[in-house]
């Protein structure tokens, strides 16, 4: 049965907050950015009424709405694995108060299962930046023994809490005008492995992934960072996405496609992307990424899509000798020939 | 009482030449087609001009009972304007074997 991995990695979001005192209450601002596939909603569980004259803390949690990302998964698909990628890098910026007194903060950043205590004694108007990296925070839900449906995926993980907690405690000297500003930047992602029977199956690919099916390899680079891979008769059965350490790339998108079959794809962007095709010989398909004794990459050429999302309407114009397509995005036009205009006489004699 | 066909109906004809009053640009593609387009004869294309004092002739070698001429262009911005078509033919047999 065909298997696909539905990837939505390298998602980035930013949270920010603000706490100030003395003696007041904190009302952190919780800002989320919807990147189109992640819908991170604010679900405040912070301790209200933070008083800066003593130790204080609050937490923020973010729920991940899986509804948007899994639009491309057909209802009859069976999901065998869900991998949730927790923050790979986080920047915490702490700004102590400017009262001139000894303002001592102990910052503890908790990321789901992990708990990391940052160095204390961030005093004055100092800024401290912290980064978290590693894969220990990944969480894998293996349903391979009993695959679940899309509806069950939403039910089980629709409110999956991806992260996070940030607790801040102050040294606590009453009357000091302290403040804490922080911003968090997260790289998030998830992968859903799906087995399916039929029907269209499409999704967007953002990170570097490798598609392995044996045979040859074709490289597709989409400069617009958006590819929609169709399914059905186009995609041969049994191909699989491989994620590597490059799950969170920052460069252009490469899709490694290894197949003897013709590869067809659609670009829905109304711009004019170029697709670069290349080929290599690979030997060890079991490895990830596959290896080859002598990797020979052969450029197959470049396919430029002149116009996408085009429309046309016939207008009678005297002396016009061709057809014209109009691009919806910017009203530019593209002329092409009338398909072989012809005439026939009657039969003679 | 209706006469059973016109005088030449059913004769096997040889279509040996096409002559056109033709203006345009590009090359005019031509084919002679048999009944139901079972057989065809592709003629050498005619290079068209915007103005010409020649009615060009193209030889053909197509033997059928009846035939029709197809004309077309196949490249963008090619145009043709035809005001006369003459198809030369003569009978070569009275009928196919019965």
Give the structure's gist in a few sentences.
With 349 residues, chain A is mostly beta strands. In chain A, 2% of the residues lie in helices and 37% in strands. Chain B has no helices and five strands.
Description of the molecule:
The complex is a heterodimer of chains A (349) and B (98). By secondary structure, chain A is an all-beta fold. Chain A has one helix at 150-157; strands spanning 3-20, 40-44, 60-64, 78-85, 94-95, 105-111, 114-117, 127-128, 139-142, 160-163, 165-170, 179-195, 209-212, 217-222, 240-242, 253-258, 274-279, 298-304, 310-311, 323-327, 333-336, 342-344. In chain A, the strands form seven sheets. In chain A, strands 1-12-4-9 form a four-stranded antiparallel beta sheet, with no helix packed on it. A four-stranded mixed beta sheet of chain A has the order 14-16-13-15, with no helix packed on it. A three-stranded antiparallel beta sheet of chain A has the order 2-3-10, with no helix packed on it. The longest helix of chain A is centred in the middle third of the chain and has 8 residues, at 150-157. In chain A, 25% of the residues are buried. The model of chain A is unreliable at 7-72, 87-137, 159-190, 196-286 and 292-303 (pLDDT under 50). Chain B is mostly beta strands and 98 residues long. Chain B is 0% helix and 60% strand. Chain B is built from no helices and five strands. Chain B has strands at 12-33, 40-48, 57-64, 68-72, 79-93. In chain B, strands 1, 2, 3, 4 and 5 form a five-stranded antiparallel beta sheet that branches. Chain A binds chain B through residues 321-322, 335-338, 340-349, and chain B through 8-9, 11, 13, 33, 35, 66-79, 82, 85, 87, 89.
């Amino acid at each position: 049965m065909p298997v696909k991995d539905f990837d939505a990695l390298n998602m980035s979001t930013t949270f920010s907050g603000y706490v100030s005192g003395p003696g007041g209450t904190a009302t952190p601002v919780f800002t989320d950015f919807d990147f189109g596939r992640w819908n991170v909603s604010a679900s405040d569980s912070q301790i209200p009424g933070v008083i800066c004259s003593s130790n204080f803390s609050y937490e923020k949690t973010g729920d991940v709405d899986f509804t948007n990302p899994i639009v491309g998964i057909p209802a009859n698909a069976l999901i065998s694995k869900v991998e949730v990628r927790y923050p790979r890098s986080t920047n915490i910026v702490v700004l102590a108060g400017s009262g001139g007194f000894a303002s001592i903060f102990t910052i503890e950043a908790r990321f789901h299962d992990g708990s990391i205590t940052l160095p204390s004694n961030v005093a004055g108007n100092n800024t401290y930046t912290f980064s978290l990296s590693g894969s220990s925070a990944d969480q894998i839900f293996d349903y391979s023994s009993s695959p679940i449906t899309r509806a069950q995926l939403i039910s089980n993980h629709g409110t999956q809490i991806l992260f996070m907690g940030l607790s801040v405690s102050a040294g606590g000297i009453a009357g000091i005008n302290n403040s804490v500003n922080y911003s968090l930047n997260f790289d998030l992602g998830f992968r859903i492995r799906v087995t399916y029977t039929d029907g269209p199956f499409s999704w967007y690919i953002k990170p570097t992934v490798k598609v392995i099916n044996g045979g040859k390899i074709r490289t597709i680079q989409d400069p617009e960072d958006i590819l929609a891979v169709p399914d059905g008769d186009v995609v041969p059965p049994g191909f699989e996405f491989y994620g590597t350490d490059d799950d969170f790339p920052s460069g252009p998108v490469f899709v490694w496609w290894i197949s003897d079959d013709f590869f067809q794809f659609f670009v829905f962007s109304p711009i004019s992307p170029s697709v670069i095709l290349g080929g290599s010989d690979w030997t060890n398909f079991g490895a990830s990424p596959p290896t080859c004794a002598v990797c020979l990459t052969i450029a197959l050429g470049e396919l430029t899509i002149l116009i996408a999302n085009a429309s046309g309407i016939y207008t009678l114009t005297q002396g016009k000798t061709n057809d014209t397509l109009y691009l919806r995005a910017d009203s530019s036009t593209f002329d092409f020939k009338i398909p072989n205009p012809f005439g026939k006489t009657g039969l003679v004699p | 009482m209706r006469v059973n066909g016109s005088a030449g109906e059913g004769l096997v004809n040889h279509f040996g030449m096409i002559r056109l009053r033709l203006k345009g640009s590009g090359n005019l593609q031509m084919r002679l087609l048999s009944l139901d387009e079972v057989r065809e004869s592709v003629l050498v294309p005619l290079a068209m001009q915007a103005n010409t004092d020649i009615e060009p002739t193209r030889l053909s070698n197509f033997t059928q009972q009846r035939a029709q001429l197809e004309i077309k262009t196949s490249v963008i911005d090619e145009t043709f304007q035809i005001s006369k078509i003459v198809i030369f033919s003569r009978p070569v047999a009275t009928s196919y074997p019965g």
